[in-house]
Design brief:
CATH class of the largest domain: Alpha Beta
Structural class: alpha/beta
Bound molecules: nicotinamide-adenine-dinucleotide
Number of helices: 10
Helix content: 25-40%
Largest sheet: 5 strands, parallel
CATH superfamily of the largest domain: NAD(P)-binding Rossmann-like Domain
CATH topology of the largest domain: Rossmann fold
CATH architecture of the largest domain: 3-Layer(aba) Sandwich
Strand order of the largest sheet: 5-4-6-7-10
Shape: globular
Number of strands: 10
Radius of gyration: 19 Å
Length: 289
């Protein structure tokens, strides 16, 4: 069965929208998005995030800079946003230009406004199982998918492919937590993992986040496994209007008949990431007003 991430994300957005419209607040929640350079995918992601804000009633403020912006100027923009009362969430769109150190930027964001959850304080809180921080949006979106589909991970073998700071590592920390519905036995595989096929084949739930188009084929999948495809990869397609189409890290057609559930690309994890961003911004707003 195909998991309709878009429909689940829509229902979460509906809930946020009702909460924002349902009470009288002296202001709306506010999200600041910092966008640097001209990379087309970054601009596309920011546009989607802005549209999401519009749908639920969050004010979004886009701060756009040339790719030559100095680290000093970027840090001072973030300081201003940290002190700006109308801003509940600060998001710095990745990737950053090479001369800017992501860790330094994330550490400069007020942890209370760090709705992307990349500040070391919030990363630490996930590891400690503390719920008063912010969880990065893609791991949170995947956790919400399991919750909404009533998939109990207790004791299940979950293999995550990819150890990035934005997906793999925080997702592993989240799914292994001693908390109802989680409690998974997590394996985190990466580019140096030996015999990857065997490691994946043990998984009751396989999460692919490696950024290699259609890498996972049916040989990697245990019969009846749940497959979560995080990958968003552009591949050339002369028949498409844009000249490209989006595919995941999983070869959908190869895997489909062998798994029990699978997220498609697009309309799988992507919309859940946006819904989680809106949810984190709403949470920040509630904590701050
Ligand atoms: P990244 O490039 O930061 O990390 C990739 C990881 O994959 C690394 O840890 C690496 O060790 C591992 N890897 C690379 N080759 C491998 C191999 N052959 N076998 C096993 N592991 C291997 O990636 P990222 O930022 O986590 O993104 C991964 C993918 O997820 C990309 O396609 C990205 O576009 C997508 N993504 C999607 C969303 C969403 O909302 N759906 C959000 C974030 C990222």
């Amino acid at each position: 069965m195909i998991i309709d991430g878009k429909a689940i994300a829509d229902s979460i957005e509906q809930e946020i929208s009702s909460k924002i419209a349902g009470e009288v607040f002296h202001r709306r929640p506010g999200l600041a998005v910092v966008l640097i350079g001209e990379l087309a995918p970054s601009h596309a992601y920011v546009k989607m995030k802005k549209k999401g804000c519009d749908r639920v009633g969050i004010n979004s403020y886009i701060y756009q800079f040339d790719e030559n912006i100095s680290e000093h100027d970027l840090l001072s923009t973030i300081q201003d946003l940290n002190g700006d009362e109308k801003i509940d969430g600060i998001l710095v769109q990745l990737p950053l230009p090479d001369h800017i150190l992501p860790h330094k930027i994330f550490a400069s964001i007020d942890p209370g406004k760090d709705i992307d959850g990349f500040n070391p304080v919030n990363m630490g809180k996930i590891l400690l199982g503390m719920s008063d921080g912010f969880c990065p949006c893609t791991p949170l979106g995947i956790k919400l998918l399991f919750e909404k589909l009533s998939i109990d991970l207790t004791g299940k073998n979950v293999t995550i492919l990819g150890r990035s700071n934005i997906v793999g590592k925080p997702l592993a920390a989240l799914l292994m937590q001693n908390s109802p519905g989680l409690n998974a036995t997590v394996t985190l595989a990466h580019s140096k993992t030996k015999d990857l096929q065997a490691v994946c084949h043990r998984a009751d739930v396989l999460v692919a986040a490696i950024g290699i188009p259609q890498f996972i084929t049916r040989e990697y999948i245990k019969q009846g496994a749940v497959v979560i495809d995080v990958g968003i990869n552009r591949v050339d397609d002369p028949d498409a209007k844009t000249g490209y189409r989006l595919v995941g890290d999983v070869d959908f057609h190869s895997v489909f008949e062998k798994c029990s559930l699978i997220t498609p690309v697009p309309k799988g994890v992507g919309p859940m990431t946006i819904a989680s961003l809106l949810l984190n911004t709403w949470t920040s707003f509630r904590r701050r007003i």
